[in-house]
Amino acid sequence: MTTTVGSFPKPDYLVKARSDFASGKISQEELTQLEKKATEECIRLQEEIGLDILVDGEMERGDMVTFFAEKMRGFGISGLVRSYGNRYYRKPVVISEVRREKPITVQMFEYAQSLTEKPVKGIVTGPYTICSWSFDEYYPDRRGCVMALAKEMHKEVVDLEGAGARYIQIDEPAIFTRPDEIDLAIEAMKIVTEGIEAKTISHICYGDFAVMYPRILDLAVDQLDLEFANSDFANLEIFRQPKFTKEIAIGVLDVHSHIVEKKDEVKANIRKALGVFPVESVYIDPDCGLKTRTPDEAEAKLRVMVEAVKEVREELGVE
Ligand SMILES: [Zn+2]
Question: For residue 288, how far is its CA from the centre of ligand 1 (angstroms)?
Fold first, then answer.
């Protein structure tokens, strides 16, 4: 099965519309119309390429944490914070009890799912990552903040399932940034996915798997979605021992590189991965969201990926 991690590049007209909206030149309604147009184009593209599990492309989202913080009660936004070098950005700040007052991602999920017969993934940012990438000026400790967010994100996941999502992904890229807090991330995930019957997935990236394996198997999800292409599949050996116990989505496209992968190279990597993970538990996708690539690069990379999977399937004689 082929899928993607979540974000697609935004078309130029939407990039412009987002900046026009920020400076008050267009209304929320006009922006939403263009987000829906971009979502429909994104769904059509994925169908045409032949992906199995689709995404809405996250056309209404900017930063994966700020998007949720802005839509919940309890958050403010900081002044400019310096990140790498001379880049500045604004970071969410927890200033009072966090509360999700209404569904955040459900409307766009429903719209995207209404456009296609194929399953569309519901995708949310996990509580551990939202807390880690925000300032907390309210809760006495990180545990308080993460657990409060876990309860709120659980409501979002329940609503996505209620809206028909058969696959729900909880992104937790921050897990790898503090290996000493893995217990907290595991405890939070249990709350987020409690009672959910849809297939649950966690996408984790940026990390050294060796430090976190096998503890990440304790995350309460059915599938882990990890990056491999970026490290040239050097990580693969870690997962032989102890045995991997979940489904795995294997990143075969390096989203940080503008170079389009060669089909034969992707096929070789898939075969290498199938030497470690049983074929029935394997999904193939890019390492991470595609929003940093140009639309042309994203499309070309995905075509190579889908073609590679198709050929490996044929060669192995599997469905
Ligand atoms: Zn990622």
Answer: 4
Burial class (CB in 10 A: 0-12, 13-18, 19+), 32: middle
Q: In this predicted model, what pLDDT tens digit does every residue of 27-77 receive, in sequence order? A: 999 999 999 999 999 999 999 999 999 999 999 999 999 999 999 999 998
105 vs 298: CA distance, rounded Å: 23
**Span from the CA of 153 to the centroid of ligand 1 (angstroms):** 19
Rounded to 5°, the CA angle 275-270-58 comes to 130
With a CB cutoff of 8 Å and minimum separation 6, the contacts of 16 are none
Q: State the CB neighbour count (10 A cutoff) for residue 117.
A: 6
Find the 38 Cα to ligand 1 centroid distance in Å: 22
Stated pTM of the model: 0.96
**Distance (Å) from CA 293 to ligand 1 centroid:** 13
Q: Which token pair is 243?
A: 């045995």
Question: How far apart, in whole angstroms, are the C-alpha atoms of residue 79 and residue 38?
Answer: 31
For residue 206, how far is its CA from the centre of ligand 1 (angstroms)?
Answer: 7
